[in-house]
Amino acid sequence: MTITRPGAPDRPSGTGLRVGLVGAGFIGGTHLAAWRSEGIDVVVFDVDPARSSLLADAFGVSVAPTLEALLVATDVVDICTPTHLHASVAIAATRAGRHVICEKPLARTLADGEAMLAAARQAGVRLLVGQVVRFYPEFAAARQAVVAGAIGDPAVLRLTRANSRPQQAADHWFFNHARSGGIILDLMIHDLDFARWVAGEVVSVACRSAAFEHPGAGVDHAVAILTHASGAISHVSASWAYAPQTSRTAFEIAGSRGLIEQDSDRTAGVERSLQDVGASGRATSLADGALGGDPFRLELAEFARAIEANVEPRTDGADALETLRLALAADQSARSAGQTIRLEAGAGS
Amino acid sequence: MTATQARRRVRIGVLSTEHMHAASYIRLLAKMPGVELIGVWDADPEHAGAAAKLAGTRALPTPEDLLSMVDGVVITSTNVDHRELTERAAAAGADVLCDKPLAITVADAKAIVEACDRAGVRLMTAFPMRFSPVIRSLESSVRSGSLGSVVCLEGVNSSRMPNNLAPWFVDPARSGGGALMDHVVHLADLYRWILRDEVVEVYAVANRILHERFDRVETGGLVMLRFAGGVFATIDCSWSKPRSYPTWGGLSIDAIGTAGVIRADAFRQRLAVYGGPGAGVAWPSWGPDEDQGTLDEFVAAVSQRRPPAVSGVDGLRAVEIVAAAYRSIETGAPVKLAT
Question: Considering the domain A18-132 in this protein, what is its CATH number?
């Protein structure tokens, strides 16, 4: 069997898509770099003018003084704000008739996510959500192998995301469960989405998280066990408990006829062991595992093609709503001491 | 060798060769200087004869023929036969090293423990991974506090489907179940030992998709445990390795604590050999042999007339966890265990 890699993005089509980036934080910078690599023009807005200027200047793009000004100047709004603010920005953008690209998770609550989808439908615009793991070559290749029948029907999945604690200050929105949804909505959601992509919809989930089981411990680690409608079962582990500069992903997909294994520790194309830890660290970065193409660039290029050329992307807002529904169920289980949460069968929007 | 020296050696026999562990134990026992391997019994005299011949010992026609001559006995039968053979050994006054799982039901496991208590014989459950230097290193790191306080343990004990080694593994009447019955006890026991704590809640899911949807027993399973002290722990017990996998399977634990994470992989110490017998790649182990540690401990306990480091109650507790896992699969909800 041949595994073909997802293609490198075509060069920009030259139709002059104008992107308005909202939120000039960490992920905003990642998106901006990807857009610029695609040669696409970007305008930046952030509620903090100093932050938007800093980011815009670094990439030589312009700043919008207000969200309204950004909406006037662009075709697509790319939302990179804190999670709990996704909905208000998205709904404002759709009302202005703009397509929306939104960083994962779709929203902080299901009601917000549903409102975003309804608003996009009503306005007749695209709503696309950056479940970026689907654009990581190892994940995309594994999914393609499963679809091609390489291992038969998926039976037992084990998905691991082992990270050090994010470097943000303790009062950052990232660590505020009401704003970010914590480790389950922010980190585990990557593999919850991948589990759905490979083994189909999930009918029940049980999850435990150190944040709720050991609230005083200052360590965050969560594990979920999923049962899919197909009968497949998944073990999903997400951690911020590892040593500084750790960023490892691993998965195993066992099927009726075979097994797929992948571990980023063994597949990084470049390993760095530098004397000056301050320079760029000892560790292999996620990007070293994806030298064939920046996954964010692949993602945003595919979304741009969807908007410009009406080519269906591999994931969209309705899909992301189901992943959010699953992540929220896992969070609910974790908050109720691992009780099994059932998801409505075929709960599509 | 003088008669006195011979008498000092611990006399050990093996009851049943139906479990593939029997071959390993017999081979090791035959080489242990402190052991006199008395013989082997199996319900199938041909199997007993073949196993005995390999180790230069004899085959005995009945369990009692063997039991009348030994200090201790290693039981490596099908899971369902553990109870009857242990009870017969206890009645004959022989100490017992019984393969895992101790029994296929909680009632049988309790009966085994009680029979040995009543007869005043030692009962050790064979949990070889307790003697893995890799796992012992993890345990001592946890005990010393270098991991801070543990919040979560994640373990994988996956393998090929063992029915090619012994067909009874997939006959529920003789094995008691599939991948859950086969594998959960190892990690459940290690977790209890590492944490010195008991399980209070068990959640489990299972399916029958692996190996071309082989459906006589469950072949895939995931378990989530909660301990009294608050640690949560998971077990992947699936028979998820295909026949073509380069080794039988493995066992690993990720221990997550407030001071970081320790990963212990008990079977990572292996070569990759290409072009050997058969096609493809093989991963022969060069790591330590945990079966030897198991036998050393049993023989020492028998010889020194002391309790073995792994008890019958340890075996019973692991069986209780497995039974709760099967109940959880039936109900689809977590099951509470009395402490």
Answer: 3.40.50.720
Contact criterion met (CB below 8 Å) for B331 and B205: no
A235/B222 Cβ within 8 A: yes
* Single-letter amino acid, residue A305: R
CA distance A330 to chain B (A): 14
Minimum-distance CB partner of B220 among A155, A221, A239 = A155
Report the number of secondary-structure helices (H) and strands (E) in chain B.
12, 15
Contact A211, B230 (CB under 8 A): no
**Six token digits for residue A299:** 């993602």
Stretch 307-336 of chain B: residues touching chain A, C-beta under 8 Å: 332-334
Cα-atom radius of gyration of chain B, to the nearest Å?
Answer: 20
Q: What ranges do the domains of chain A cover? A: 18-132, 134-293+316-342
Cβ count within 10 A of residue B4: 7
- The one-digit pLDDT tens for each residue of chain A (349 residues) are 333 333 334 444 455 899 999 999 999 999 999 999 999 999 999 999 999 999 999 999 999 999 999 999 999 999 999 999 999 999 999 999 999 999 999 999 999 999 999 999 999 999 999 999 999 999 999 999 999 999 999 999 999 999 999 988 889 998 999 999 999 999 999 999 999 999 999 999 999 999 999 988 889 999 999 999 999 999 999 999 999 989 999 999 999 999 999 999 888 888 777 887 665 544 445 556 567 789 999 999 999 999 999 999 999 999 999 999 999 999 999 999 999 999 975 444 3
Q: Determine, for residues B222 and A233 on separate chains, whether the beta-carbon distance falls below 8 Å.
A: yes
ipTM: 0.95
Q: Residues B90-125, buried b or exposed e (16+ Cβ, 10 A)?
A: bebebbbbbbbbbbbbbebbbbbbebbeebebbbbb
Do A100 and A93 touch, CB atoms closer than 8 A?
yes
Which residue spans within B172-274 are E strands per DSSP? Answer: 199-207, 220-227, 232-236, 249-257, 260-265, 273-274
Query: B285: which DSSP letter?
Result: B
DSSP code of B106? H
Test B207 with A232 for CB contact under 8 angstroms.
yes
A259 touches B242 (CB < 8 A): yes
Domains of chain B: 3-128 (3.40.50.720), 129-288+311-336 (3.30.360.10)
What is the rounded distance in angstroms from the CA atom of residue B115 to the CA atom of residue B121? 9
Number of residues that make up chain B: 339
Rounded CA separation B105/B39 (Å): 29
Provide the 8-state DSSP code for B204.
Answer: E
Residue whose tokens read 């198991």: B294
Question: Of A213, A225, A256, which is closest to B205 when you measure between CB atoms?
Answer: A225
What are the angstrom distances between the C-alpha of A66 and each of A22, A40, A71, A89, B328? 10, 21, 9, 12, 55
Q: Which CATH class is domain A134-293+316-342?
A: alpha beta
